[in-house]
Design brief:
The chain is of the alpha+beta class. The protein is built from seven helices and ten strands. Among the domains are: 7-26 and 86-172, Ku70, Chain: A, Domain 2 (Beta Barrel); 187-202 and 214-266, no CATH class. The strands form two sheets. An eight-stranded mixed β-sheet has the order 5-1-2-7-10-9-8-6.
Length: 267
């Protein structure tokens, strides 16, 4: 079942505007979540802000945002001051620039959302914008207030809809060259490449969402079900991988053994 939209507004390109709705493309609602309890009473434990110096609880109306400018001094910002700096991008996604889709590295992508037309009147305008991006291999860049902050967003055509990605801020992404550039050029034996290629071919499968299932989640649900029925859950002890503990020195031999083992499993 499709989830309800959490944002509604307008998609705008120059003079073309249409009403749209958006919902997060991912969810964590199915994850097992725990509450912290008082073991003695069985009651839930709640968190509360306390004054770091006096140790006394702080009422919600007395909580304010403070920016530290020295070890013990803060600049206090009131809620109306924070709202005053928000831009006019709360309800409108105004696409002001397009860039080739292949030029945005994946590391800039943060959180995906599904964007779709919100009424029949705007379906044609929405479809025209989407298909124009798809045919030109471009994505739209805009700005939008989401999660209480203005963010750069990227609009990517996908099937009959558009995926809106929030993008990371410039100061959040580290330069890969600072890390990957330190390793020198290594000459690779062509025979090793041939063996690695064979191993990759042997292990290549079509993508399946089951490849990213969470086995820990399944075991947690089993434990919870057992406890509900009053049974003691089975204890699972992880076994050490014999191959991982062995000291393999010859890469060529290791690859040959890997290929042989994969073929044996297949048969």
């Amino acid at each position: 079942m499709a989830s309800r939209s959490f944002w509604k507004g307008y998609l705008k390109l120059s003079l073309v505007t249409c009403s749209v709705a958006m919902t997060p493309a991912t969810t964590e609602n199915e994850k097992v979540r725990f509450h912290t309890l008082n073991r003695k009473t069985g009651n839930r434990v709640v968190s509360q802000y306390v004054d770091m110096v006096t140790g006394k609880p702080v009422n919600e109306e007395d909580e304010v945002k403070g920016y530290p400018w020295s070890d013990e001094e803060y600049v206090v910002l009131e809620e109306d001051e924070l709202q005053a700096i928000s831009l006019e991008s709360t309800h409108t996604i105004d696409i002001d620039v397009f860039v080739p889709a292949a030029t945005i590295d994946w590391i800039w992508y943060e959180k995906p959302h599904y964007l779709m037309p919100d009424d029949q009147v705007g379906e044609e305008a929405f479809a025209v914008i989407r298909e124009a991006m798809a045919s030109t291999g471009t994505v739209g860049i805009s700005r939008l207030v989401m999660y209480r902050r203005e963010r750069a967003v990227m609009l990517e055509p996908r099937g009959k809809g558009i995926v809106l990605w929030t993008l990371r801020y410039g100061d959040e992404v580290r330069d890969a060259g600072d890390y990957f550039g330190m390793s020198g050029e290594t000459e690779i034996d062509p025979k090793l490449m041939e063996l690695i290629g064979a191993l990759i071919d042997e292990r290549t499968r079509p993508w399946d969402p089951k490849m990213v299932d969470d086995p820990v989640q399944d075991r947690l649900l089993d434990i919870i079900a057992s406890k509900k029925k009053g049974r003691r859950p089975a204890t699972r002890i992880a076994k050490a991988d014999a191959d991982a503990s062995s000291n393999v020195i010859n890469i060529m031999d290791a690859l040959r053994k890997s290929i042989s083992a994969d073929k044996t499993k297949r048969s």
